[in-house]
Amino acid sequence: MYIDIRKEIEALSAETVGLRRDIHAHPELGFREFRTANIIERRLADCGLRVRRCAGTGVIGVLEGAKPGKTLMLRSDMDALPLAENNELPFCSQNPGVMHACGHDCHVAVQLQVAKLLAAHRDELPGTLVFLFQPNEEEIGAPRMIEQGALTDPRSDAILGMHVWSPIQTGKVGMVSGPCCASSYYFKATIRGKGTHGCLPERGVSPIEAGRHVLAAINSMQTMEYGTLDEPTLITVGSLHAGDYMNIIPDELTMEGSIRCLHRNEAAVHARFRELVTAVSAAYRCDCDVSLTCGNSMLENDAQLAELARSVAAGVVGEGNIVSEGVREMGGDDLAEFFLAGIPGFYYLVGMGNRAKGSDAAHHSRDFRVDEDVLDLCVELQARIALTYLDAL
Predict the structure, then answer these.
(1) What global pTM score does this model have?
(2) Does the structure show a pLDDT above 90 at 126?
């Protein structure tokens, strides 16, 4: 099968940028991506794909090649974030308080263009490509799609995911085998004491006093009990609330945060966290309830797919521009839930950090910008990896 991929991508380049800008200007929060889903559905249908909805705003397009072969799923997230955009670009958000501050607008545009590019060659294509557009990635939308049959009709043999990434320099690609993104569990600890007047602390039991020792114990736990190389563990407290008035010791304190593990021993970490928080609270005469909710599981790349993808990327950007340092991270991606459903997968990062263009700002920040020069590279990498997996190149 021969496709002049780069030439065809260049012919689509202006359309790719325009599509990304349109989606960027109309950001939508998770499970409310109605406009975005309609655009995706219409464009996939125009390419002749078999299209269906899943989980409300999720869209799945199936491209069946003319020849028998394997089935590969390409996944794109599509939701925005509840942030007010801080720039004056002509295509900045028209939806106040909502912004594409992570790059999902790029992912949608790239995946639509990969579908368009490969659909034009379906007569030469072996196997099947499934283009899955997932809502609500920021708050783990994958399980709902799985529950509603996203991984059937057809069942894929492998899954491929990609993310534009500002911490990596434009022109470089981040790829690793094995653990890539940490699991993330959200905790809430409710510490209960006995309220009293501030001038009579001995008549009460202060949950605030217990809480400050719990904080110290959590910090000691993650720094002293887990190796930074073999068991990377990060516990972050993001919310702490107690009391309503300055001279009243309250009855209870609530503490909320996240536990992230970039290793398989997360169950033991969670058990130790419960044990420690409960014991320290008890030492200061307080009761404590701890709840843990899964944000996302650890994302672990398949070794064979990693080798295949790295070989393809080396041919596109050069071996020297493939990086592994800084790719493994304590953030999460619920693409992991698809991998855990028994389908091997690979997830990689396309660098777009360019200080001169302001595209090196952190993801999830109001100043987030995209270096649009990487869009064509993303389309090329996704298309070439897909075709190589299907033995089409």
Answers:
(1) 0.94
(2) yes
